[in-house]
From TrEMBL:
Protein keywords: Isomerase, Metal-binding
Taxonomic path: Bacteria, Pseudomonadati, Bacteroidota, Sphingobacteriia, Sphingobacteriales
Gene3D superfamilies, sorted: 2,3-Dihydroxybiphenyl 1,2-Dioxygenase, domain 1
InterPro entries found in the cross-reference section: Glyas_Bleomycin-R_OHBP_Dase, MeMalonyl-CoA_epimerase, MMCE/EMCE_epimerase, VOC_core
Recorded coiled-coil stretches: none
Name of the featured protein: Methylmalonyl-CoA/ethylmalonyl-CoA epimerase
Domain of life the protein comes from: Bacteria
Enzyme kind, highest EC tier: isomerase
Organism: Mucilaginibacter pocheonensis
Classification via PROSITE patterns: VOC
The protein's Enzyme Commission number: 5.1.99.1
Amino acid sequence: MNKVEHIGIAVSDIRIAGGVYEKLLNTTIYKTELVEQEGVETAFLKTGPNKVELLQAIDDNSSIAKFIAKRGEGIHHIAFDVDDIVAEMERLKQEGFVLLSDKPKPGADNKLVCFVHPKSANGVLIELCQSIVG
C-alpha cells in the first residue's frame, strides 16, 4: 500500500456537508460523481496532498444509507492507494483478511476498488484503490 488515498465520510445531504467541508478545509469541491452501482453520490475535496470523499445515499438499500441509519453521519472508510489491486487482494486474503468482493470493481474518481471487511481490520472499513489507466 502506497499511501492514504482518501477518507470517506457518510453524509445525509452532500450539498450541506459540502459547504461545511469547503469552509473547514478552505477549499472547494473539485469533483462530484454518481456511482449508481453503489447507490451513492460522491463529492471530492482536496487539501494539500489529502483527499476527502463525501458520500450520500441515492438508494435506501445502499451501504451508505444503512450506515447512516445505524451509526449516523461520520467517517465511513479509509482508502489506500495500491499499484496492483489484484495482487494486494490476494496478499490480504493470504494474510487472513476477509474481502467484500472477489474481484475489484469500478468506483468513484476513476478507480478500481475493493473493500476489506471491518471485522478483519479492528472495526475499520478499508478500501483499496487503484487508478484506472487510460
